Amino acid sequence: MQSICAYVLTILGKSESYRMNLNTLLNYPILGYSNIGYTIIFFQLPMPKTIYSKDYKLLLAKIREARLEADLTQKEVSDKLGKTQSYISKIESGERRLDIIELKVLAQIYRKNINYFIEN
């Protein structure tokens, strides 16, 4: 018997109708496969808080380092972005989460390849 490990929301604590809907989905073939002959395993993995991870702290340090290498102040960067100085300060301190699009824009301002920030 084959096993399919699925990272899905745990059904513990969910309503009975949710369980019935989930069971209904599992009983119908999806893309030619059904759950007959398979073991479906449900479990929930704890999501680490990435803003506290070592890798995220390294990213923040690289962002600050790139700004300093570009010889720019937080105020100068914020003016280029049309944001406040505290916006840049919060990014560099980890108070504000940075998404990939914002990282791309900062990389352009700092004249760095985006891989500079991502690689260890």
Description:
- This protein is mainly alpha-helical.
- It folds into two domains: 2-43, no CATH class; 50-118, 434 Repressor (Amino-terminal Domain).
- Helices cover 50% and strands 10% of the residues.
- It has six helices and two strands, in the order βαβααααα.
- The protein has helices at residues 16-27, 54-69, 74-81, 85-93, 100-109, 114-118, and strands at 2-7, 38-43.
- The chain has a two-stranded parallel sheet.
- Strand 1 (2-7), helix 1 (16-27) and strand 2 form a beta-alpha-beta unit.
- Helix 3 packs across helix 4 (85-93).
- The model is unreliable at 1-20 (pLDDT under 50).
Query: Count the strands?
Result: 2
- Radius of gyration over all CA atoms, rounded: 23 Å
Spatial separation of the terminal alpha carbons: 41 Å
Sheet with the most strands, sense and barrel status = 2 strands, parallel
According to CATH, the fold-level topology of the largest domain is 434 Repressor (Amino-terminal Domain)
Give helix and strand order, one letter per element, not per position.
EHEHHHHH
The name of the CATH architecture of the largest domain is Orthogonal Bundle
Strand residues, percent? 5-15%
Number of helices: 6
Shape: globular
Structural class: mainly alpha
Per CATH, the superfamily of the largest domain is: lambda repressor-like DNA-binding domains
Supply the CATH class of the largest domain. Mainly Alpha
